[in-house]
Amino acid sequence: VQLVESVGCLVQPGGSLRFSCEASGFTFNRYTMSWVRQAPGKGLEWVASVIGNGGNSYYADSMRGRFRIFRDNIKRTVHLQMNNLRPEETVVYFCAKANAPWIITKDTSDIERGRGTQVTVSS
């Protein structure tokens, strides 16, 4: 399994950013894909998930309305559009897949994730 996130960057507070993740090594459309994140010195935080066919997506309360997760099963990619970013969202974002096909999970211990990409939200 390989999950490769796009490169992170610096963005101003209130700004927008889109991450992409390229997946390989598994039957992509059978797996719920997620984004999780980790602040310095803290544990993993679930951000959002999208089911295998892309029909339903789920968000943590603080991201709902600002973030959008979507996928392209032909290209085997999953994306996270982030708007109105906040300084406290200076974190590392990880692309992740569920550990088993067809399940929907928000449990950050029940996923396999990529190496992560850094976002810095600062003026």
3D architecture notes:
The chain has no helices and eleven strands. With 123 residues, it is mainly β. The strands form two sheets. Strands 2, 4, 5, 6, 9, 10 and 11 form a seven-stranded mixed β-sheet that branches. A hairpin with a 6-residue loop joins strand 5 (44-50) and strand 6 (57-59). The radius of gyration is 13 Å and the shape is globular. The mean pLDDT is 95.
Q: What is the helix fraction of residues, given as a range?
A: under 10%
The outline comes out as globular
Which segments are poorly predicted (pLDDT under 50) over 5 or more consecutive residues?
Answer: none
Tell me the total number of β-strands: 11
Average pLDDT works out at 95
Number of helices: 0
What key attributes describe this structure?
123 residues; four-stranded antiparallel β-sheet
Task: Briefly summarize what is shown.
The chain is built from no helices and eleven strands. The chain is an all-beta fold and 123 residues long. The strands form two sheets. Strands 2, 4, 5, 6, 9, 10 and 11 form a seven-stranded mixed β-sheet that branches. It has a four-stranded antiparallel β-sheet with strand order 1-3-8-7, with no helix packed on it.
What's the structural blueprint in terms of helices and strands?
Blueprint: E1 2-5, E2 10-11, E3 17-24, E4 33-38, E5 44-50, E6 57-59, E7 67-72, E8 77-82, E9 91-98, E10 111-113, E11 117-121
Parallel strand pairs: 2-11
Antiparallel strand pairs: 1-3, 3-8, 4-5, 4-9, 5-6, 7-8, 9-10, 9-11
